[in-house]
Amino acid sequence: MKKIIIGNWKMYGDPAMAAALAQSIVKNTAGKANNAQVVICPPAILLPHVAPHLSGSTIKLGGQDCHIQPDGAYTGDISALMLKQAGCTHVLVGHSERRKFHHEQDIDVRHKAARAVKTGLIPVICIGESEEERKAGKTKDILAQQIRECIPEEAIQGDFILAYEPVWAIGSGKTPTMGDISDIHAYIISLAARRTGMDSASIPVIYGGSVKADNAREIMAAEAVSGVLVGGASLKAEEFCRIVAAAT
Ligand code: PEP
Asked: Is 232 touching ligand 1 by the criterion CB < 6 Å?
């Protein structure tokens, strides 16, 4: 399986910056990204400024969220189909910032992932424990619940990616030990295999939370890690390209 490297630009950028960053990533990873499937997820309004620069490259485009309904009176929301029509192949669902600031629950995440699959997008289902839950020794219980609740029937035997993102590691500069990452990923894979009936080897689980050029190689080499979800460091072309290079 190729390593999966996803860049989440969050709510950063403008048209000129988005085009320049996309061009730079394409140029600097050309011919070097054979061992990786790279996906970049700009803010929805910047997708048309990024998509033309990816055509002819192996880099794919993703959304950061989608609505559970195909369309309707949902002011300010974006449908999975709109993302697809803008050139996306992937969409993040259940990112901890969506859970925190938009009060999304596991059931919302499941419906969003289901909508993505029905629309022909690959959902990147984000799960992970908070600092409080970790300190209380509840990490595995929380992950078990999220896996049970967030993977929709529609994704079973289909294409989906799980992203393990401990909330306390996002944007904090802190990461779990490599041993902990491998242990948690193996646990996630075994539960997801049980939940879906899929072969463990075909369930990609990527790690997210303070991934940088300096730790990407070690994280991607860790047992049971299929790739990385990168936030802050995906906004710097040189740093992101070094992360892609670390997959080789
Ligand atoms: C993220 O936004 O998914 C993320 C992992 O952020 P960062 O890499 O900045 O911790």
From this structure: yes
* pLDDT tens-digit series, residues 50-95: 999 999 999 999 999 999 999 999 999 999 999 999 999 999 999 9
Ligand 1 centroid, distance to 213 Cα (angstroms):
13
Q: How many CA atoms lie within 13 A of 183 on its CB side?
A: 7
List domains and CATH numbers for the chain: 3-246 (3.20.20.70)
Give per-residue pLDDT as tens, 196-244.
999 999 999 999 999 999 999 999 999 999 999 999 999 999 999 999 9
Q: Is the CB of 208 under 6 A from ligand 1?
A: yes
CB count in 10 Å sphere of residue 33:
23
Helix (H, G, I), strand (E, B) or coil at 8: strand
User: Which candidate in 90, 95, 111, 185 is catalytic?
Assistant: 95
pTM over 0.85: yes
Q: Is 165 considered catalytic here?
A: yes
Q: Is 95 a catalytic residue?
A: yes
